[in-house]
Structure formats: C-alpha cells, structure tokens
C-alpha cells in the first residue's frame, strides 16, 4: 500500500485518482497482515484495487465525474466492490472517468482530464481513463472500470494493459450508477491475465440485488489459463479494410493472425456487412436508455441543487442545466428525441431490430468459430482536443468495441506492440457469451 501511495503522489499530475483512501487502505493492510499470520486471509489478500467513480462504496463520495452528484455519498456498497472487500482486496481510492461513462477520451469530467502516462499530451481513452492509467502507471495492482460500448477495452488499448468486458449479466450492476442499463458491464483492468481472471471470478455471479444477473456458476478462470488445442478464428474483412484503421494497427493485427496460422490454428476471413450499422444502433439505444436513467437527477434526491431557483419548475430546469456537462446534455436530448412519440418507431424500434440482427450474426459466428479477432481501436491514443469539437469523430473511436456491447458477448483487449511513435496498440478478442475462461486462456497464450 505504501508503495502505491508513494507512486500516486509522484504521479499526481496524471489526475487518475479523484480521492485516495490513504488511512483506510493502510489500516486494512495491517488487518490483512494479521489475518495472513493466522492463515485466515481471503484470496485477494493484499491486492490493491482502485474503483471507477461510478461504483458505490458506503459512506464514501461518488460523483460519476458529474457536478450533478456533487456532495453525494453512497448509501450502500456495490456488489462488485463488496465481493472484493470480502476477499481482502484493499480499495485504495476512486478513479476519474468521463461523466456518467459518456466519452472516449476522459475529457468530459468535472474532475478534469486524465493524462496518458505513455505521452502526457495524449488522452488515456475513456470513459474509464482513470482506471486504465492507475494500472498503467503502477498506482494500484488492478482496477474496476465499466464498459458500455468500449470503456474498458479502448482505454486498456491506449495504455498498453489488459482490459476485459465480461458477458452482459455476468457481474451484478447493483451499486453501479447507470448509463445504459441493457449495455452496462463492470470490467477489470490489470497488467497481466492472471490478476484479471482472479478479480473477475471474485466479482462475477448471481446476486439477489440484480435480477438481470445470470445464475450460471462462475468458473475459476485463474485456474483455467492453460491453452492447448488448435482453434478456429474469424476476422472480419470490413474491420481490417476500414479506411479509418491506422496502418501500423492493421499490420500488427494481421501479423498476429499470420503467426496463429503458422502455429496450426484455422484462420478465416468473414464478411460483416452490418459493421456500418453497429455504431448508429449503439448510439440510438444507449442515448435512449441514458435519457431515462438520468431523469432521476432532478435536484430533489441526489447531490447538487441549484441555488438560483424561484419555484419548483425552475429548480428542476436550472439544476439539470447547471449540473450536467455538455456531452451528457447532448445525449439526453438525443435520447429523448428518439423516444418521442413521432420518432419512436423510426429510430428506437428500428434500432432494436438492428440490434437483434447484429446479435444473431455475432452469436452465429461465435458458434462456428472459437474467437473473433480485430483491432480494439482504429487509432492509437490521440491528442487532447483532437475530437472534442466533433462528437461524431469521437463516436467513431468506438467502431470496433461496440459490436460486443450490442451483442452482449465478452471481449478482451490485450497489448499488441506499439506504433512508430511508441504508443500502445490493442488487440481485441471476442468469444461467445459466458466463455470468459476461453478468452483468458487464449489471451494468456498470446501474451
Ligand atoms: N465511448 C462510448 C460512449 O461514449 C463508450 C462508453 C462506455 O463504454 N461507457 O458511449
């Protein structure tokens, strides 16, 4: 704990942590030392973990990096964090992110931007930018983030670490501040596969507080990392041929596929004509869900209330106008529009149907192939401000990560070398629902 606390101080300029639980982390470390001496410590004894600022921890502030949650304290602990604590992990602090998980660069945060430790002029990715940089810069051993459309995998790629988005419904969302409930997942950042597997097997599994969580038992992923048999792998032509793809990322991805072929695995190119519809589908459905989820922040129940109101109506309006950031407001408006009576069928219903087509296609493919491989992102970490005035350019950053989110299947991003500027490249692997053990074993083989 002392080692990480020192690193957090020397790397304070990265702005990854918004709060450090110094006293409680040191106290917990001492408690664990005693437990270890008597042989009674949990399986994560001593693992130092940071948590994204959207996960509740009793009697601690949680803001979702938004002014609207200023001063809000959690009334209970999220299931994922509770399970870590029960296995004697040490929660070291709260990590910066994009407001309500909306963004791909961590520039939309009331706590300010997070710097990429590989190059301080570049973004760490988002929305879980603080969680990624905390692991990249050795400020904690592992961290929890959330991935709705790529927010664990994309920052993992930009910072050269491992990040998993589990199957939708594998991990309880109880105590996670919602963005888009039918997409939200809690994911894990780490420097290696084994730590990642250990954390996921601890937090996953049935929970009486979240009726959408699967009742399937959780394999002990960390004991199943051996990979021995030849497998079938698909790559999608439209991803590799995409004009937006940085040439070095294309080369590195193709060279992994070539190496796998030489090692006796079956590699096949598959057409994915729906690729161009994945991003619009994702942004219509997530904004719709967000507009509904965020209606609860009205100045009455949570956090910030405007001091400028003169009646009830202006209290609601001013609280929301002053409390939400620009990107969040854009999405609430977009979501409200696609759900409005005259446009519901044209946008929301249509997008639901396209979601089903994408999900069916992806699951069918993953019944025929063990894995789909693609780049995690079209480019390596970009400069601050590069996309901040162009929301569509920012949304395009998610073009490869949203397929797994729309389909609900698990996906992992692992480091795959660097580009000519020395910036990390990520490789994304997808498997069918609940096949996290296969993902980890394969990722372990590749790293
Ligand atoms: N960048 C995507 C978005 O802004 C993904 C965010 C996420 O996964 N939370 O919606």
From TrEMBL:
The reaction(s) this protein catalyses: L-glutamyl-tRNA(Gln) + L-glutamine + ATP + H2O = L-glutaminyl-tRNA(Gln) + L-glutamate + ADP + phosphate + H(+)
One GO CC annotation: glutamyl-tRNA(Gln) amidotransferase complex
Keywords linked to the UniProt accession: ATP-binding, Ligase, Nucleotide-binding, Protein biosynthesis, Transferase
Main enzyme class: ligase
One GO-annotated biological process of the protein: translation
Xref: InterPro entries: Amidase, Amidase_dom, AS_sf, GatA
Domain of life: Bacteria
GO molecular function: ATP binding; glutaminyl-tRNA synthase (glutamine-hydrolyzing) activity; transferase activity
Keyword Nucleotide-binding: yes
Amidase domain boundaries: 1-439
Enzyme Commission (EC) number: 6.3.5.7
Active site: residue positions: 52, 127, 151
Assigned protein family: Belongs to the amidase family. GatA subfamily.
Role: Allows the formation of correctly charged Gln-tRNA(Gln) through the transamidation of misacylated Glu-tRNA(Gln) in organisms which lack glutaminyl-tRNA synthetase. The reaction takes place in the presence of glutamine and ATP through an activated gamma-phospho-Glu-tRNA(Gln).
Assembly: Heterotrimer of A, B and C subunits.
Stored HAMAP family: GatA
Protein name in the entry: Glutamyl-tRNA(Gln) amidotransferase subunit A
Lineage of the species this protein comes from: Bacteria, Pseudomonadati, Bacteroidota, Cytophagia, Cytophagales
Gene: gatA
């Amino acid at each position: 704990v002392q080692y990480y606390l020192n690193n957090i101080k020397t790397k304070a300029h990265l702005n990854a942590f918004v709060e450090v639980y110094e006293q409680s982390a040191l106290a917990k470390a001492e408690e664990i030392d005693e437990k270890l001496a008597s042989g009674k410590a949990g399986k994560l004894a001593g693992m130092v973990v940071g948590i994204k600022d959207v996960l509740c921890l009793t009697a601690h502030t949680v803001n979702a990096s938004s002014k609207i949650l200023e001063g809000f304290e959690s009334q209970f602990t999220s299931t994922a964090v509770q399970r870590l604590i029960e296995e004697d992990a040490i929660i070291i602090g709260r990590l910066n992110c994009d407001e309500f998980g909306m963004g791909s660069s961590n520039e939309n945060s009331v706590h300010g931007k997070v710097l990429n430790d590989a190059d301080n002029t570049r973004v760490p990715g988002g929305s879980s930018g603080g969680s990624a940089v905390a692991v990249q810069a050795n400020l904690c051993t592992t961290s929890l983030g959330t991935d709705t459309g790529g927010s664990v995998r994309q920052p993992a790629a930009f910072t050269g670490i491992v990040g998993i988005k589990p199957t939708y419904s594998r991990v309880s969302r109880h105590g996670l501040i919602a963005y888009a409930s039918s997409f939200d997942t809690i994911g894990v950042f780490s420097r290696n596969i084994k730590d990642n597997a250990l954390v996921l097997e601890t937090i996953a599994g049935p929970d009486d507080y979240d009726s959408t969580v699967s009742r399937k038992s959780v394999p002990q992923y960390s004991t199943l990392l051996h990979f021995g048999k030849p497998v079938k792998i698909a790559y999608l032509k439209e991803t590799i041929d995409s004009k937006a793809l940085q040439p070095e990322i294309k080369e590195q991805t193709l060279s992994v596929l070539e190496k796998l072929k030489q090692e006796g695995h079956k590699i096949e190119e598959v057409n994915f004509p729906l690729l161009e519809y994945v991003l619009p589908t994702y942004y219509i459905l997530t904004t719709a869900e967000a507009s509904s989820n965020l209606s609860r922040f009205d100045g009455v129940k949570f956090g910030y209330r405007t001091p400028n109101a003169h009646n009830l109506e202006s209290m609601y309006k001013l609280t929301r106008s002053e409390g939400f950031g620009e990107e969040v407001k854009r999405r609430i408006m977009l979501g409200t529009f696609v759900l409005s009576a005259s446009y519901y069928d044209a946008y929301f219903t249509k997008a639901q149907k396209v979601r089903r087509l994408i999900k069916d296609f992806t699951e069918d493919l993953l019944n025929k192939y063990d894995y789909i491989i693609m780049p995690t992102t079209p480019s390596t970490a970009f400069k601050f401000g590069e996309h901040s005035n162009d929301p569509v350019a920012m949304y395009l950053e998610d073009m490869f990560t949203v397929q797994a989110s729309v389909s609900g299947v698990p996906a992992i991003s692992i480091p795959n070398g660097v580009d000519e500027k020395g910036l990390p490249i990520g490789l994304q692997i997808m498997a069918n629902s609940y096949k996290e053990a296969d993902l980890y074993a394969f990722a372990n083989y590749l790293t």
